[in-house]
Amino acid sequence: MEKALAELRARIVAAAGREHAVDGLLLSIVDAPTPPMSSLATPTFALVAQGRKRLAVGDQVFEYGAGDYLVVSVDLPVTGHFVEASKDQPCLGVGLSLRAELIASLLLDAADSQVPGGSVQALTVSRAPDELVDAVVRLLRLVDEPEDARVLAPLVEREILWRLLRSPQGAAVREIGLADSSLSHVARVIRWIRDHYTEPFRVEDLAALAGMSTSAFHRHFRTVTAMTPIQFQKKIRLQEARLRLVGLGEDVTSTGYAVGYDSPSQFSREYRREFGTPPSRDTSLIRAEASLP
Predict the structure, then answer these.
(1) Least confident of 158-162, 244-248, 258-262
(2) Half-sphere exposure of 80 toward its Cβ, with a 13 Å CA cutoff?
(3) Do 104 and 27 sit in the same domain of this protein?
(4) What's the domain range around 186?
(5) In 142-181, where does DSSP find H-type helix?
(6) Taking the C-alpha atoms of 102, 104, 110 and 113 in order, what is their torsion angle to the nearest 10 degrees?
(7) Is 205 in the same domain as 118?
(8) Alpha helix locations (H) across 26-78?
(9) Residue 162: which CATH number?
(10) What digits encode the pLDDT tens for the residues 76-118?
(11) Is the pTM of this model over 0.90?
């Protein structure tokens, strides 16, 4: 694997920032450790070629480094930071959006093959097999061959998806492509919470939206996201609040109301619990860091 990872590192550095014809391909270069930052992860496959990153989802923490890969199977609020990265040895990664329609097509063609099933988590980390790393390297080679990429990139992407389906994380990838899977039912609720995060809800109504009993919905939602629906909504609200405070320059009280809080004191209290500092001070710290050379 080390030879393939060495080529992968070189190709990430060479291709980063360039336009290419490979749909859904994401490249990452980070040359210093970063503080924890919250974001909304989308269904993605990511492979680390160098360095280490740490992600927190609910009360679970995942750390992964060179040769490890990650699969996110639903939209998910996460807190992550790079823990090993420097100018001499930056953290290098490659990602690929996981599109439900491509996975569904592959499942139809592989109807007679054995694909792992069972309960799934929304985020999982595993050691990448050589065949998967090799396929990712071949996808990056196509960045230098735009004419070939238009024809061959979909085929290599299909191979990557197949390798993922046959991997220990195959159950999570499989569920993305199934229209009536328990993951798709939970994902429907996740989309609703994401789009209506300022609104109150009853868990019974969310369970009905998922087509499950309340107890089954609670169990499946927590298995997938490592959070309760209320905790999930709170994460979305606080992430949106941070974006508003830093990006739009809104005041703390207005921001709290805008993201769904009725009480400014409750907003400040939960913001501090989530990010470790009150909202006004957190905003100042982030802006100060952004202004550093």
Answers:
(1) 244-248
(2) 18
(3) yes
(4) 182-227
(5) 146-165, 170-177
(6) 120
(7) no
(8) none
(9) 2.60.120.10
(10) 999 999 999 999 999 999 999 999 899 988 888 876 566 666 6
(11) no
Crossing angle of the two packed helices 2-15 and 130-141, in degrees rounded to 10? 30
Domain shared by 129 and 198, yes or no: no
CA 175 to chain centre: 16
Residues 6+ apart with CB under 8 A from 31: 85, 86, 87, 90, 91
Q: Rounded CA gap, 223 and 167, in Å?
A: 20
The two three-digit tokens of residue 228, written as one number:
């309760």
Backbone angles phi, psi at 187, to 5 degrees: -60, -35
Residue with tokens 């990153």: 53
Q: E strands along the chain, which residues?
A: 25-30, 37-41, 44-50, 52-57, 60-65, 68-72, 76-84, 91-97, 123-127
Nearest CA among 127, 162, 156, 130 for reference residue 143: 156
CATH of the domain at 191: 1.10.10.60
Are 120 and 175 in contact by the 8 Å Cβ rule? The answer is yes
Burial class (CB in 10 A: 0-12, 13-18, 19+), 228: middle
CA distance 248 to 242: 10
pLDDT in tens, 4-18: 999 999 999 988 777
Q: Rounded CA gap, 268 and 199, in Å?
A: 19
